[in-house]
Design goal:
By secondary structure, the chain is an alpha+beta fold. Helices cover 31% and strands 30% of the residues.
């Protein structure tokens, strides 16, 4: 099952232009919010999402992979923000899930329909923590 909305984009600009009208305002707001909050994280197009910053880790086959620290994605039925960061051996989203708002949360993912569902002050805190503490549980970080 593919949760991503169909998108043939090859750049951040194309991705943003292809977001449906009913979500464009929220995606544009979040894209700008993330860039203003963590301006040192380079923005780039990752497959089916916008990435902000990246880190390298060894996968289960001991192969080096790079992954966005933060990613913004338009899904078929909702918007997702992926935040790959660990603080005190716990995923940052998990650590702040109660303060983020009444929305669906995974270990490193926030899912919602409308921007009003998110506590933006807590999201800002989580983004800043991610910038300084990238990673995912049980993955070994490595240098570029």
């Amino acid at each position: 099952m593919n949760m991503f909305a169909k998108n043939e984009a090859k750049s951040v600009e194309e991705y943003l232009m292809m977001v449906p009208d009913d979500r464009r305002k929220d995606i544009d707001f979040l894209h700008n919010f993330i860039q203003k909050t963590v301006p040192n994280l380079k923005t780039y197009f990752a497959t089916n999402m916008i990435g902000y910053g990246s880190f390298y880790y060894l996968d289960s086959k001991k192969q080096k992979k790079d992954w966005p620290i933060i990613a913004l994605a338009n899904q078929k039925n909702y918007i997702s923000i992926y935040i790959c960061a660990i603080v005190e051996d716990k995923a940052v989203v998990e650590k702040h899930k109660k303060e983020l708002g009444k929305l669906s949360k995974g270990i490193s993912c926030i899912r919602f329909m409308k921007i009003e569902e998110i506590n933006l002050e807590t999201l800002k805190t989580v983004l800043l923590l991610a910038e300084k503490n990238p990673g995912v549980a049980s993955a070994r970080l490595v240098d570029k």
